[in-house]
Amino acid sequence: MAEGTTFSGPADPRFFTRAGPFDAATLAETAGAELVLPKAGAVPEEGFVGIAPLQAAGPRDVSFLDNRRYAPLLEQTKAGLVIVAPAFADKVPAGCAALVTGTPYLAWSRVARLFHPRVPARAGVHPSACIDPTASIDPTAEIGPFVVVGAKAEIGPGCIIGSHAVVGDGVQLAQDCRIGSHVTLSHAVLGERVIILPGSRIGQDGFGFAVGPQGFETVPQLGRVVLENDVEIGANSTIDRGSVNDTVIGAGSRLDNLVQIGHNARLGRCCIVVSQAGISGSTVLEDYVTIAAQAGLIGHIRIGAKARIGAQCGVMSDIEGGADVIGSPAMPFREFFRNVAVLRKLAKKASGSAKNGSDKG
Amino acid sequence: MAEGTTFSGPADPRFFTRAGPFDAATLAETAGAELVLPKAGAVPEEGFVGIAPLQAAGPRDVSFLDNRRYAPLLEQTKAGLVIVAPAFADKVPAGCAALVTGTPYLAWSRVARLFHPRVPARAGVHPSACIDPTASIDPTAEIGPFVVVGAKAEIGPGCIIGSHAVVGDGVQLAQDCRIGSHVTLSHAVLGERVIILPGSRIGQDGFGFAVGPQGFETVPQLGRVVLENDVEIGANSTIDRGSVNDTVIGAGSRLDNLVQIGHNARLGRCCIVVSQAGISGSTVLEDYVTIAAQAGLIGHIRIGAKARIGAQCGVMSDIEGGADVIGSPAMPFREFFRNVAVLRKLAKKASGSAKNGSDKG
Amino acid sequence: MAEGTTFSGPADPRFFTRAGPFDAATLAETAGAELVLPKAGAVPEEGFVGIAPLQAAGPRDVSFLDNRRYAPLLEQTKAGLVIVAPAFADKVPAGCAALVTGTPYLAWSRVARLFHPRVPARAGVHPSACIDPTASIDPTAEIGPFVVVGAKAEIGPGCIIGSHAVVGDGVQLAQDCRIGSHVTLSHAVLGERVIILPGSRIGQDGFGFAVGPQGFETVPQLGRVVLENDVEIGANSTIDRGSVNDTVIGAGSRLDNLVQIGHNARLGRCCIVVSQAGISGSTVLEDYVTIAAQAGLIGHIRIGAKARIGAQCGVMSDIEGGADVIGSPAMPFREFFRNVAVLRKLAKKASGSAKNGSDKG
């Protein structure tokens, strides 16, 4: 490795701009937290200049504790200000101020955003972009190099379209969407503040064909993709358009990288789909469903609100709202781990020996 | 969500052109179906104007019933014409004509295509494309913006090459291929009517390396990818070229999104590989094999003709022709579900309680 | 299939250039092998012209045997020179010379590379590329069509940047990197000789959000991606940048296609991650870990050096160095297959019948 690149700590100035400094009161307000002054000393008058992890932070940095496993680092931190839950407030070192809140991760997120705000759209169309004369692009939108915008497409105020992205004929984007490099959008309607990371494919033909006398015949895919407000899609994911109805991703839902959504699937509000999971055609997720990594759902089923589907789970039938399932086929968490334990016991007994009885997996 | 986008029903005119109207006789011929006139009334003289799902169709729309679970919608439909299997012919409402056929889904597909034909190639090379002077491009082919065509590549009549696609040095496409945006083709030979959706990668180096004294050493990958006639590949899939032999996808086979095909794999005719499935290097599929979503096959095995590999199945050895397997490791469907049931029973007994006895997964 | 494309054997001249001929002594030196002259006849004076598989090779071709299952082909080969392990030296046909070595696959790799050397960078920036004036590009680097290079990015000597690739603001590449078409690099620092195949996404936002009163709120992702020397990444893979710390891929590691690496993950030296596997955020792999296809690792765990994670394995906790695990949840190989066998036996007994007793899966 190039030895000169041993930058440590977040927000390498090569890549990130930085706002500030900010004083403790401003940070407390941003965090929605109670400011507790240090037992010894005072907060720096010149304000805080950035964020850093507990072990790397200095007296003018803000840090945070979110995960109980990192609690030992708290007592040794040299951070000037630390965001913590009430349970850890008395573990904050004497020289360190605290921002105490019941939602430390959210507070941290907002403080980090204050120091590192999103770069706004740089209004204008790059001269290399290929824009159909019938497309409508708001003058405040930013259109990057080598972008293609098709006939009658509409791009709203404040949108950022990354380089090489394709906005197909008729596609609509409401305001403040951020479309990553190399994204393909076709047959799609996007709400406000939709974010798509590089390389995702939205709106292509679903996987539909009929068996004909000479082989498979493609069934025309005549629906759309609708991405509601505040949807975020990771990198290299694929969302097929509907065949007859639309494929819909509900407001506020978040999809990770390499996720597959089949035609006519419908996700409710604030669903989470983690990387490499797949949802087959015409399956419905109600609101607040979580699908963990590499899980797969067959088509034409319904997942009730707030259900949680575990990693690698294989879901072959409807799941009730609020259920916690895992395994392939899916079963309740408790049952799955009971089965695992019972089978291990039976297998040991059958082999008449406990010599393989330990594992760390 | 932008509230103005509540278009419902298929074929939003923003995205789809529409042919027609067509009279019932033409539709019957296209469908290869028997026309049954309505018990009450007649078919509209002006013909039918489009297709729609049962619950949304009007008197001048064609609809269809394919899935038994939607049968209740048939009796209430206001469609003027409906495509059904013989078993449902007497459930068609009195005012509605029927197209009766043993293959309603195929008939539907053809009728939908009649109303919404594929857009033909718009002959010509976009001025922004970067074409090697030694490449050969048929004058009837359509080459989109920012396409790169390499040295001695050959693109046949009627092909459509989407924006930003790369047709590498020497790559050959026979007639009427459709290559999506951002597709990368290298070391590849394509038959006629091959379709590749956006972002798929065809022909890159396979995953081959030898252990050398200083670490891994890449083994040169000296084969090709051959996509035979009528192959279709989904979005963001990856097909590595062969190391010594070719990687071959047989005529008429269909691959979905995010599928991985390793080097030297050979698929027969009319195989189906559903999304996120992976086939390791040098594995052979005979004809008409189906691989369901997220299944994985190790390398150097053979799957017999018409075998069906279930979702998330892990295949570690040869599978006989016609077999139906699932599970990881793969086993016959019947055995898999028997195992699941037996384990559940044993686990309940072992826990001495039936309190966890119900699940919907 | 186009019938004219029945080229057989490796290194189709449409796609591959060829060096040579080379004499047996040169090949022996390249292979690091002992040359054994044919029992009958001599090696061709004009040297050898290429490589070919055993069944296709002729008297001026070099072939090899690596996999025991192909041993019967050795005795029938018409190759003039064959690379074999000592155990097979006496099976080489009488007219054929041999290169005998304990590492035949490595020797083969080097001989194949001798005939088909990597194409070096063609120095220069394609006129269609879009280069920020503050970027620094070594004059020996090759920058392809439609490439975008951002502000203050640095591209080292001998690098090849494929068409449509994006090298984001501030990204650094040391010498001799090869970046495929359509790759996106952002917030990333690359060592020497890093190879990335087409369509991979490096450095985008990780999947991090906090639950706010109005829905999810994105947590700023303020780390980087560091790819150390000799890392190779397949096609359409995704490596998210760190949230606070960096995501690091250790020197010499190899990732296949469609692999997902979450934010803050750290891989040691010479790790292998096969296609469609996923590693969740903040998980650590020590050196020489192998992750087979479609395996998944949850976040915040540690995998010890030289551990091997089987295909489709679901890893939910730390794994000791050197362990061999498989299954979901992960367990030792031996235990997994014992469980499979015991369950099958119990299920047969429970069903009171052996009629389903045979499978090939």
Q: Can you tell me about this structure?
A:
The structure is a homotrimer of 361-residue chains. Chain A is of the alpha/beta class and 361 residues long. Among the domains of chain A are: 15-115, MurE/MurF, N-terminal domain (Udp-n-acetylmuramoylalanyl-d-glutamate--2,6- Diaminopimelate Ligase, Chain: A, domain 1, 3-Layer(aba) Sandwich), CATH 3.40.1390; 183-333, 3 Solenoid (UDP N-Acetylglucosamine Acyltransferase, domain 1), CATH 2.160.10.10. In chain A, the strands form five sheets. In chain A, strands 6-9-12-15-18-23-26-29-32-35-37-38 form a twelve-stranded mixed β-sheet. Chain A has a ten-stranded parallel β-sheet with strand order 7-10-13-16-19-24-27-30-33-36, with no helix packed on it. A nine-stranded parallel β-sheet of chain A has the order 8-11-14-17-22-25-28-31-34, with no helix packed on it. In chain A, a hairpin with a 4-residue loop joins strand 37 and strand 38 (331-332). Chain A is flat and about 85 Å long. The two termini of chain A are 32 Å apart. At the A-B interface, strand 20, strand 21, strand 36, strand 38 and helix 4 of A face helix 3 and helix 4 of B.
